[in-house]
Design a protein that fits this description.
The chain is α+β, with helices and mostly antiparallel strands and about 220 residues long. The chain has helices at about 1-25, 60, 75-105, 110-120, 120-125, 170-185, 190-200, 200-205; strands at about 35-40, 65-75, 135-145, 155-165. The chain has one domain (about 35-210).
């Protein structure tokens, strides 16, 4: 009888613990959409949109880095092309932002002239050094936005995503070239040296990042 009581008590405790664990599990959040989905290039939203490495073979991930961006247009072809271009441009934007962040961290915000250049020109000039990138995958949705659902106006357009990859070898070359361009453009010997030291290992660090760099909206 005593053994039976102990077993029953233990079972009750386990059941209680299991119930508590289940209660703690987060419930998926559902957000209201201001559009209805009319068509899509795939039955499921690709995982690579949120996790870019999911879009390639595991054997390729260690050798490459991945970049995603999106666009919208009333024409599907233009929408896809725009998403591809924006994803490629994202590479230069992330290079510029990472260099800016690294410089600010190493120099406590550093020289105003250098900061201004990074803010206004670096992403554009870094684009010239982005060589060897390729579009890996695309995904599109045809959406009907409705005022009744909260949209600004009734309209139908495509929303497209593109996944671009670039080898770490080429990416490192791009960062090195962007860094060289930056340092060579600084007139003050003191500031030049300070900047050179602050960004000494920026190429290696950027190449080995395992997540995207959050780009400031002014540089998007």
């Amino acid at each position: 009888m005593k053994k039976l009581l102990l077993i029953t008590t233990a079972f009750a405790l386990v059941s209680c613990g299991s119930s508590e664990k289940k209660a703690e599990e987060p419930t998926p959040r559902q957000f209201a959409k201001d559009y209805t989905l009319l068509d899509a290039s795939s039955g499921l939203v690709p995982e690579w949109i949120e996790n870019p490495t999911k879009g390639d073979k595991s054997s390729e991930i260690k050798k490459n880095r991945y970049f995603v961006n999106e666009s919208s247009n009333v024409q599907k072809r233009l929408c896809v092309r725009s998403a591809e271009a924006r994803a490629t441009a994202r590479i230069a934007q992330e290079i510029a932002q990472f260099m800016k962040n690294s410089y600010a961290e190493a120099t406590q915000n550093g020289d105003d002239e250098v900061n201004e250049y990074m803010q206004e020109q670096l992403a554009t000039e870094a684009q010239a050094f982005v060589v060897g990138s390729s579009v890996l995958k695309t995904y599109w949705e045809k959406r009907a936005y409705k005022e009744a659902l909260g949209a600004e106006e009734d309209k139908t357009e495509y929303n497209c995503f593109a996944l671009v990859k670039m080898s770490k070898k080429n990416l490192e070359k791009a960062v090195i070239s962007a860094r060289k361009k930056l340092v060579e453009g600084i007139e003050s010997p003191e500031v030049k040296k300070k900047t050179d030291v602050a960004l000494a290992d920026v190429a290696a660090k950027f190449t080995e990042l395992d997540k995207k760099v959050e780009v400031e909206s002014s540089e998007e």
